[in-house]
Write a structure and sequence with these properties.
This protein is α/β, with parallel strands linked by helices. It is built from 10 helices and 10 strands. The strands form 2 sheets. Strands 6-7-8-3-9-10 form a 6-stranded mixed sheet, sandwiched between helices. A 4-stranded antiparallel sheet has the order 2-1-4-5, with helices on one face. It is globular and about 50 Å long. It starts with a strand and ends in a 5-residue tail after the last helix.
Length: 246
Amino acid sequence: MVKFEIKNLNIWFGQVQALKNVNMRIYANEILSVIGPANSGKTTFLRTLNRLNELSINFRMSGSVELDGQDILQINAELLRKKVGTVFALPTPLPLSVFDNVAYGIRMHGVKNNLEGIAQEALKEAYLWDEVKDRMKESAFKLSGGQQQRLCIARALAVEPDVILFDEPCSGLDPISTAKIEEAMLKLKDKYTLVLVTNNVKQAARVGDRTAFFLSGELIEVDNTDKIFTAPSDQRTDDYIRGKFG
């Protein structure tokens, strides 16, 4: 089932065109890895999916992005960002307890009942519950970097999104923390659609069902991850994966 349909998408920030005529689909319950060198447009693409680019000065776009067949511009931005959660590169815990971090979003959406149960389930899905179940009243800042990032994943999961966007979620983490987040991702796709922007091509290969390669604002190709990494259609994709540029 198609989750996102992107048609003739162009994005500018002032005079700079960040994305150029992107056409692609993202399917439900897949992990789409998005790779490409710096300034390739991959983060801009990610932020388009829940309208975060609108927060930037001089942003404009043409083309369309549909979520479940509905133009995202016709969806209230707050509701859209509930449906399409984001986990950023650096962990961004709130200056609150572990529990209050997870419960923050659901409280903002007016949920008052069973907060403990919702928080526990979200922490389990983020592979963090066993590490924090006796620390729920502690400050989130006392957690390690990897734990803080999984806490942010749990916070996103608690509001029951349909899609989770990951923007370099493991960029500052050690291999053990990275492995735990990747393990969580592989499990989460049973319930959610995941889009992962990563500079780590090995990570893209490990977790992605499909992979999209961006270069200079253009979508060069998107295909099954196995094919992208063994027999890409475009020589530039092969050169990037092999480390010839980037």
